Structure formats: C-alpha cells, structure tokens
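From the shared-data thread, chain only:
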Amino acid sequence: MHYALYYWSGIQGRGEFVRLALEDAGADYTDVAREQGDDAIMPFLRGDHAGALPFAPPFLKAGTLLIAQTANILQYLGPQLGLVPDSGSRRVYAHQLQLTIADLVAEVHDSHHPIAGSLYYEDQKDEARRRAANLRETRLPKFLGYFERVLERGGGYHALRTHSHVDLSLFQMMAGLEYAFPRAMHRLQGGLPHLHALCIRVAARPNIAAYLASPRRCPFSENGIFRHYDELDDPA
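Structure, as tokens:
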C-alpha cells in the first residue's frame, strides 16, 4: 500500500503524529504538500473530489479511502503497519489513549491561542499567560501523571505492553512539551521516569533515529502547535 499524507508544509503540527507512525514502520508514503506545496491540500477541503470530506489536515489517502483526524488515521494505520496489538480490546484502548493525547494537544494549542486561532498571539498575550499558567500547574501534571500510570500498567516499557503508535505519539507529545515549556517540564521530570525512558527508547529505534536526523523532520517553531514563548513557561 502506498499512502499519501496531506498536511501543511514547513511545520510538524498534528501531521507529525501520523508521520512518525509511517516512518517507524518504513511505510511507502508521500508527504504531498512538502513535494507539491500547500495548494495540493485545498481541492480536498473544497470538496473537489468524490468520497469523504475532511474538515482540515491531516488526512491520509490510502487506496480509495480518505481518512481525516489524527487519532482516526492512526486507528486505521495501526493494524496496517503492525503498530497495535491483535486484541480487539487493546485496539480500543489504543484509540482511547490516542484521543486523550489529542485532548492534551488541544490544550497546549489553547495555551498560546486561548481566545481564537484566527488572532495573532500578540493579540491575546494576557489571556495566554493565564491559560498557560493553568496548563503548567494543573493540566500538565494531571495528563502526564495519567500517562505515567498507563506506562506502569503496560509493564513500564510500553503503553500497551508492546510497541505501538501510542508510544510514538507519547514521544512526540513529550518532545513538543519540552520545547514549549522547558522549565516547567524540568520541574515535573522527577515524577515522570517511565515517560522519559520511553522517549529515549523511541528515539533510538532505527527508523525513528534516521528520521530525526534527516531533513524530513521539521524543527519545532512558533508556527506549530508546540510553541516556546518564554513568558508562558515557569518563571525563570
């Protein structure tokens, strides 16, 4: 199967969670906008095609299927790429965990754009400071503490006792948080040994290590979901 991934060029964003799964599995895929430009996405958003209508990237074309929403894409790709267990109950659990990661990603985005995504960060800085403080002090400990317990139940090594797309997404989530909130994450790191160990293992996987060292891995920036604004991090 050849896959076509549609996501905005130049940023990691939500597309990176899908990209990591494709890279880890050594899948045959095209990162369409990076090869053809962002205009290649627009016909699908306008509905100039037959079949499912995506609301926004990322979406994935797999044969005649057009699949949108990050967790939904990974739910489809997991069995295709060997990135979920065979058990039906474990696959449901994997999807549950992926949706919880999506919840946290949305809260991270809203920490720098709490009023509207259509406004510049500079137009909502005061509100962002308040939202980011709540994220750092309340929401991150709650979410990350939950995922730490998930890993404990998974034997301390994997979320699902075997390597899965959930492990890859936890790696991406932690990498993004450490970029966006380095001081806050340093403060929390002592209580997250399993998450930090997972990140080391994922980064060392051969296909992931090669991808991270390649130009295909865009750097984090202040144009994506995980943004570093010093004033939103823990006080220096």
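Residues 2-81 form a domain with the Glutaredoxin fold (CATH 3.40.30.10).
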